[in-house]
Amino acid sequence: QVQLVESGGGLVQAGGSLRLSCAASTSGRTFSTYAMGWFRQAPGKERDFVAAISWSGGNTYYSDSVKGRFTISRDNAKNMVYLQMNSLKPEDTAAYYCAASTLLTGFSAVVDFPYWGQGTQVTVSS
């Protein structure tokens, strides 16, 4: 079992930056054995993949829409995962969700992640 709590969302102007954090608490297996991901969902739209990171942090994956602007990272000693978001655009406005997966590879779809946080809102004004 994994419990996830996101923080760091807010209102920012276009071109600005935000850093999202996700704190994980686990039982049964350690945090370092989970791949972690960030997804986002705008009103009336599906939940979309943003970024993911392997259990060791050695491999990262990004959607084309955020590649080069967002950076996912993790600190296994602190049970934390982060999403640094730079050069934000109004189209980045969404609720952002942290998620955990037990898969070793191929984790980019909603169905790959059985554990989810409650989300944090990011609003980018033009």
What does this 3D model show about the protein?
- By secondary structure, this protein is mainly β.
- It contains no helices and eleven strands.
- Strands 2, 4, 5, 6, 9, 10 and 11 form a seven-stranded mixed sheet that branches. A four-stranded antiparallel sheet has the order 1-3-8-7, with no helix packed on it.
- A hairpin with a 6-residue loop joins strand 5 and strand 6.
Task: Sum this structure up briefly.
This protein is an all-beta fold and 126 residues long. It has strands spanning 2-7, 10-13, 18-26, 35-41, 48-53, 60-62, 70-75, 80-85, 94-101, 115-116, 120-125.
Q: Which spans of ≥5 residues are poorly predicted at pLDDT below 50?
A: none
- Secondary structural class: mainly beta
Distance between the termini: 40 Å
Strand content: over 45%
Q: Count of DSSP helices?
A: 0
N-to-C series of helices and strands: EEEEEEEEEEE
What overall form do the CA principal axes indicate?
globular
Largest sheet: 7 strands, mixed
Q: Give helix % range.
A: under 10%
Report the radius of gyration as a whole number of Å.
14 Å
Q: Mean pLDDT, as a whole number?
A: 96
> Regarding quaternary structure, how should these chains be classified?
single chain
Strand elements, count: 11
